[in-house]
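Students often ask why we bother encoding 3D structure as a string. The short answer is that it lets us treat folding as translation between two languages. Here is a chain of 179 residues written in the first language.
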Amino acid sequence: MQVLVDHLDVSEHYLGAQGLVLPLALGFHAYGVYMIATNVLYATGDTGLIGFNVALAALLNAALNLLLIPWLGALGAALTTYMAYALLALLAVRQATRRHAVRFPFSVYARTVGLVGVLGSLGGLSGTLAPLHGFLLRLVLVLVYVPMLFGLRLYRWEEVKAGWSERYGSKGREPDRVG
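And here it is in the second language, the structure alphabet:
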């Protein structure tokens, strides 16, 4: 990634932030799961649970920040954010599935986290390679991502076809828009 600093006027500090990408990505993933599950709680009037979850996650975040930031710096903050969002997601999903007729595909979640973890870790190795080799490694990882979504059964072709048909119509064209 030194090529960014040398040729694109990117700050040297950018290179040190590479290790933060994976925990932050996992944190965004957990936050997305939380938002889905918490909407079930909102829709069913369980807003007290949401407040409890947020308070508990905030306490965990504060405690872990005090422990991890002095020791790991920005990485500690990124890990803390991931753990707080993961707790929010876990609590909301657990409450939504126990209180309401909602199923959550835990195996899909685990496979997604595993895929992101493996690809992210491999991508982290690119910083140790020559610029061209690092770029090629990242390119291969990006190209492998979509086939892996199907290989790990995170998506099925039927779902993609249904989504495509919904979006573009059965003949593959964009539907007429009103207005």
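Translate back mentally: DSSP finds eight helices and no strands in the chain. Keep this in mind for the problem set.
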